[in-house]
Amino acid sequence: MRISFVGCGAAGRALARLWLRAGHEIGAIRARTHAPEAVAAVGAGEANGSLEDADVVVFATPDDVLAAVAAATPLRAEQLALHLSGAHPSTVLTVTGARVASIHPLRAFASLDVDMAESWCFVEGDPAAASLAADLGARVARIATEKKALYHAGAAIGSNFLVTVAAWARRCFQEAGIDDPEPLLALMAGSLENVRAQGLPDALTGPIARGDVAVVQAHLDALPEAEKPLYRALLSATIPIGAARGTLDEEAAKQLQNLASKIDGAGP
């Protein structure tokens, strides 16, 4: 297939190189700036060329301009318009007049040379998206178009908020006099491995899983007031996991939920 691009940032360039290696032809690479640089990075393509002869047009733009760019890019009905956004459904491209689909690689692109063998691509829309994703060397799964935003929320929670929690835990360690980040990183890596190996809810350990109300109260006593609401929110979300594991009895769960429900400023 001849694959052209509208916008071509890090993800677009990396995928273009993979599709080129898989035997596809790279056509136009269109961008308001840096189109020649994108062509050089990919090793093929025509800077700001025509989209007329493309079988597939990949919209590799930032999420916030995707709809506007699509509206300004009319295509033919037999062409496939494809975007790489995790947040938007493929239907945002319907205004192009083409068949529509999306491929979202569930990974970051820190470099142009990537191996997708251990990565997942989630696809929806036109069935051709699945074969194009497979040509990247990735593991492929379909997602319902109407569930795209929920899927992306899960991805952000699992990835972005993991960094947030790591930063929070790191601050606690530093305030406790532990400057070396390695002990915390080892702990977090072990927890992720437990999720992989044991699954949920069995991977949950610690005071909430045990129903140790006194320890949880000590955590709340030790944390700054500004951080208590977040701890309580996470506590409330974790209690059902402990209950499902079977290690948290009903009485302890009630006491923990009481701690989670306390209003800040009305006691620890």
Describe the structure.
- The protein has 268 residues and is of the alpha/beta class.
- The protein is 46% helix and 14% strand.
- It has an eight-stranded mixed sheet with strand order 3-2-1-4-5-6-7-8.
- Strand 1 (2-6), helix 1 and strand 2 form a beta-alpha-beta unit.
- Helix 1 packs parallel to helix 2 and helix 9 packs antiparallel against helix 10.
Element pattern in H and E:
EHEHEEHEEEHEHHHHHH
- Spatial sequence of strands, sheet with the most strands: 3-2-1-4-5-6-7-8
The fraction of residues assigned to DSSP E strands is 5-15%
The beta-strand count equals: 8
How far the N terminus sits from the C terminus, by CA atoms, comes to: 63 Å
> Total number of helical segments?
10
Based on Cα principal axes, name the global outline.
Answer: elongated
Describe the structure concisely for a colleague.
The chain has helices at 10-21, 35-42, 66-71, 128-134, 148-175, 182-198, 207-210, 213-222, 228-245, 250-261; strands at residues 2-6, 25-30, 46-47, 56-59, 80-83, 99-105, 120-125, 139-142. By secondary structure, the chain is α/β, with parallel strands linked by helices. α1 (10-21) runs parallel beside α2 (35-42) and α9 (228-245) packs antiparallel against α10.
Provide key terms for this protein:
single chain; 268 residues; alpha/beta; eight-stranded mixed β-sheet; 10 helices; 8 strands; 46% helix; elongated; disordered C terminus
